[in-house]
Hints:
The protein is mainly beta. The protein contains 7 helices and 39 strands.
Amino acid sequence: MERNLLARGLSRALFCVxxxxxxFTAAADDSGEPAxxxxxxxxxxxxxxxxxxxxxxxxxxVLSYDLEYFQRFEPLTVGDMLKRVPSVxxxxxxxxxxxxxLRGLDPGYTQILINGKKVPGAGNDRSFFVDRIPAELVxxxxxxxxxxxxxxxxxxxxxxxxxxxxxxxxxxxxxxGGVMHFDDGKYKNTYGAVSSGEVGGGRLLGGFNxxxxxxxxxxxxxxxxxxxxxxxxxxDQDDTRDGTDYSANVSYTHDIGTGRLSLDGFYVRTDRDExxxxxxxxxxxxxSRDNLLSVNDQLENIKQDNWSFGANYVFxxxxxRTELDLDYARFDDxxxxxxxxxxxxxxxxxPSFDGREGTxxxxxxxxxxxxxxxxxxxxxxxxxxxFGVDYLDKQRDTGLQISEIESDIxxxxxxxxxxxxxxxxxxxxTRIDPYLMFSGTSGAVAWEAGLRYETTDIDVRAxxxxxxxxxxxxxxxxxxxxxxSDADRISLSLARTVRRPxxxxxxxxxxxxxxxxxxxxxxxxxEPERAWGLDLGYxxxxxxxxxxxxNVFYRDIQDLIETxxxxxxxxxxxGDYEDEVEEFLDENPGADENTPGYPQFDxxxxxxxxxxxxxxxxxxxxxxxxxxxxxxxLPDTGVFVNYSWLDSSVDDExxxxxxxxxxxYVYNIGFIQNIRDWGVSFGASxxxxxxxxxxxxxxxxxxxxxxxxEVFVEKxxxxxxxxxLTGSNLLDASKDxxxxxxxxxxxxxxxxxxxxxxxxxxxxPVYQLIARYSF
Length: 775
């Protein structure tokens, strides 16, 4: 059992960290044209005008939003920013926005880019948690709806490109400071500064940010024998995340010869405690000791350091433009998690002391990544050609130690955590991805077509087990943009993309009781999922600043990875059978298998694994509108609306369902009113996403979120200072989950419940008062 606990913990800790190493490299201008004047940072501090979605000139379908589009509502992180853009959903705790789900699909289907470059993922599904990147470092957010050959192809749902501020784009300095107030009376400070200017013949930008992070949540769980059945027990829980994030970045650009050299560095430190206190009762409302079943306390101390460095040089070569890019990133995580529980026996009235137990888990993760890119672009008469190769070498070492202790003496302290069982693992992944792309324009039509060939080599070692695999995929892509008029545009895109297997799916480990009574074993020979995607969009410019768009998308996903039954009995089934045999032999001394009544082995739980099986498809329609109401003679009133209707279909062993955790819809509605004569602005934003449903072996979950209302009031003082008061979660939004739990697949089909649970998680309003001053 201890070894299985270690294996389970190792598989989950392997990539389940809050922030993985990131390589930040500024997007250099390779046009060869003289550099435009950099944007003045005081325009970021004092926004006299309302910012709207940009209309880009990219041939591929891209929606672009500058920081100023979001900043009136004072987002803390990139996650807070992304909750305002079309088709991005989250299945996170209340007030937390970590794993972005574009088109509502699991985060592993969404590619997160930093300055157009792929970044390593935080979770087992290779996803990247966006809620640790401070919003203050961001220049703009881009939604890239369809893949191109010069970017990594793991973007089945699309890509979210986070473009950071760099020295080439900005000039000036400002400081920022403020305070946040939470529902339980707690205050947290936030402050930082950014400065950019000419240094040594080039341009230098530096910034730092210190941000208090706090989220007090209250949970209640009610458990029943089945839906509408008898009450079993109730759990009340306080769950608090408390810590501070520290970050700093530097960017330097310098023109050398015919080229431009860009150097970038980034550092982030997370210091956080996550505490949970839970009380379990055998009564729906009582908090009396006479109804107490258990007391559970958990403390997780997280310390993480993430730093990276990138060097980029773009220069003239052989009649074209060549780009060389070198990136190194490192991530260190040191987490100590302790869970201690006191149990009481419900067979007695009142429940009597039944023992106390504790588990301490120490995890140590180090992740190193080295990346290199070579690309060459040259112009011919009718087209522009680009070819290149991306190389990535990743090494991730994980150490895990677990100690379990117990005590049968009521009131006595638990013994010290001394005997730790240890496990370790290493993942080595090498990718070499060459590509070739052509693009051009003909009158009002712009086009792009390319091929990318992605190869992946993986070696995994977990304790005494080892596995390896390699695969390759050819990814064609094509885009067409037709400017029907000065205001109207039609776009069409076709692209093939991939989703690589989750890391826990290929680990050579067997996890006992991973799905109810069923075990799970990894499959190192998994192939990636491959998808064909189609996007058809229409966009219309409204006046000088407004824009309306509608997009229809379809994804045909092949080689889906699903859990399947190997037919081998689970450890639980084997153990139950051994107990039956032992009991029979105790009652019938000298009996053997031929003795009448000897137990027959008929397992009802099994070992499952991951396998490429079947196909699925995803489709939907997306609307977005951002415009001033100039047509109604209200040029200082801006409205913002986006709505996405999402659907999908996939078959598992229980029948047809949507892709797990895909929200049925997501929408945002907001407005901003600017009163120029007073130097005042105010506005409100409301967000809502539809129910999400997930079905795996032995568990089905339906997740529902309330709407989120945010408001702000801003006062500007001259051209250098602004003060904003914002309020979020003003409706005390809740997250509600309904869990259908079963012991095995047969019970799931027959609807023979092990447990039915209803859980509600709530958190109160958060208020921020933030001031900025430029100089």
